[in-house]
Each structure stands twice: as structure tokens, then as C-alpha cells.
Amino acid sequence: MDGDLPYEREIPADRWLGSLLAGAVGDALGAPVEFLSIEEIRGRFGEAGATGYEEAYGGRGRITDDTQMTLFTVEAMIRAHLGRRLMFFEQQPASVIQHAYQRWYHTQGTPWHQAGGSYAMEAEPDGWLIRERGLYERRAPGATVLTALKGFAAGADRGTLSHRINDSKGCGAVMRAAPCALWSEDPLDAFVVAAQSGALTHGHPSGYLAAGVLAFLVHRLLDGVSLPAALTEVRGELVTWDDSAETLKSLDDAVDLAERGRPTPELLAKELGGGWVGEEALAIGVCAALVSDTLADGLLLAVNHSGDSDSTGSICGNLLGAVHGTAAIPADWLAELELRDVIERLGRDALVEFSAVNSLEQAGWRERYPAW
Length: 372
Ligand SMILES: [Mg+2]
Description:
Layout: H1 13-30, H2 38-45, H3 65-85, H4 93-107, H5 112-115, H6 143-153, H7 187-199, H8 205-222, H9 227-238, H10 245-259, H11 265-272, H12 278-291, H13 295-303, H14 309-324, H15 331-336, H16 340-353, H17 365-368
Bound molecules: magnesium ion.
Residues 64-66, 139-140, 310-311 line the site of magnesium ion.
């Protein structure tokens, strides 16, 4: 049986990489304006706002915690899927995702023996990603996420959909959830895994349900479904979940606003909020993706507003990248993107793991991706 789990779905390589890279580009476009109002953005960069990368964290094209954590989600998908193929145990991905996020927590300055919790049996964290020194940067990490991961490291139980560890609905759950689209051929499985990944740090339904919605949407977009059709489908799923009214309303508001044409930054904030919480960040990313003519246009709309610009840019990028692929990302934005090589290497490895090709035959695979 081992190594023989069927995975029939063929993931379109270029649009998967597009989703990952455009998410990172949106994050990097938003980073310089994350904490600025639209008046401050215009005052600094002109009436059109930021029209490309600006300086943040000591350079242009710098990614933030959104992309860092998204990369650890990709890594967790690969490791959990490998574990499932090897039939090590009845593996649920949430444990593997928690392990990955404890490794990210380590990159934020906590020694591994304190950051790893029950996963810190070895002196050093494992896998290749954690050895990328470029990840060891603090880029305004979310307080809820840090507190939750610190709590787990200190022995607290894992947050789940039934054991909610706090009442936070910050956008820290949805901003990192897109790669859960890989998990299964069934988009409902992707929704559930993403919601579970969200509940590791965010106990409010609007926090973890927004994560589920994003993974579902990216899954359907990768399968070639249009964004409006995918939104109709995910709405049908969302209504079946407890406490989903708030997330549903935000999604409906996003669609309604998009139908009125391209919104001004003021209207975006008035109708959809600032994006600091999960359902609002999702709504802004969705609305910008719906109304934009091009991927670049969508990303700029998603970051130029009074709100959590790096997260809304990242979410919009995950969606539009899955629609348009890598060629739609302006070449100069890709060229200046921090850790582009790491993002691409990880993205390509995910394609190997989630394909009919037996990744176990790749040299050193199990050292690069320990299956737990
Ligand atoms: Mg950020």
C-alpha cells in the first residue's frame, strides 16, 4: 500500500505557482502601506497611491509574515501528504501544520527547545525550509498568532474547531491558508483542512471560516472554475457551517460591491472594512479580484486602502494568480521579490508530491520533507 495513495487530480503547475508567487507579490506591495490610511498613502506616493514596490523592512519587494507562514503551510501540506502516503499513521494534517507553525515561530526569535513544544524532541528543527536564513526576519507578525503558538509550545492543547483556544478573528488565519487547496481532490476537504489550520491560532468562526473559504476558492480556480462560479459554490458550503453568518455577509458584500464597478479606496473601506479581521480581509481580496482587468491592477486595488494591505494583497494574489498564472505577474515585480527562489523551489516540490510521480524516488526527499 505504501507510496500508492491515488491522487488523480492534476494540479496546473503554472497557475499553482502563480497563486503562490502573486500572493507573495501582493504581500510585498502591501507591506509599505499596511499601517497607513489612504490619505497618508496618497500624501506619500501620489493620487494613485503605491503603483509598485516601495521601501519596507529595509528594501523593496520584501515579504512579511503572511508569505512566511504561507510557505510553512505549503511545507506542511507536502510533509502531511507524504506521511499519509507512507501510512505512518492515520495522519490528520492539523498536527503537521501545527508543527510547521512552531518552526515559523522559531524563526521569529525563540530558541527551538522553547518554540517547538512537543515537537522539539530533536535539538534542531528538521527539513530544508527552516534552514533558509532569509526567513528569520520579524515582519510585523500578528500578536494572536504569536500568543497561540507560544501557548502551544508551553504545553497548551492544540486549537481545534471544537476546542477553541481564543475568540480571535484576526486575518492571520486566512492570510496563510491558500496552500490547503492542495490537500485533496475534493474542495470540501480543502475547506475543512484550512479551517482546522485556522483554528490552531484563531478560535472565532470568522477567523477560521475565512481560511476555509480561501482554500476552497483557490482549489476551484486551479481546477479551471471561474471566480464567480466558485463563490456560488463556496457559499453553498459555508451556509452549512455553524456561526457562518458574518463570513457569509462579508462575501455577499464583496460581490455586491464588485457588481457596482471598481470601488474607490474610500468605498472599499466603508463597505468591506479594513481587513484586519478574517472575513473583511477575505472580502477585500475577493472584491479586488472580481473587478480587476489584470492581475497587477487587482493587486494595486487590494493594497491601496486604509487597512491591512499586505494581507488583502496576499489574498487577492492567491486568487488572481490561480486564475492567470505566472505570466500575468509583472516581470519586474517577480525579479525584485524577496525569497523568490525559495518560494519557487517549495512550490515545485509541492507539484512533485501532489502528482502521480513517486516523490520517494527523489534523492533526499524524506530528509527535506520529514513526514510529520
Ligand atoms: Mg503581514
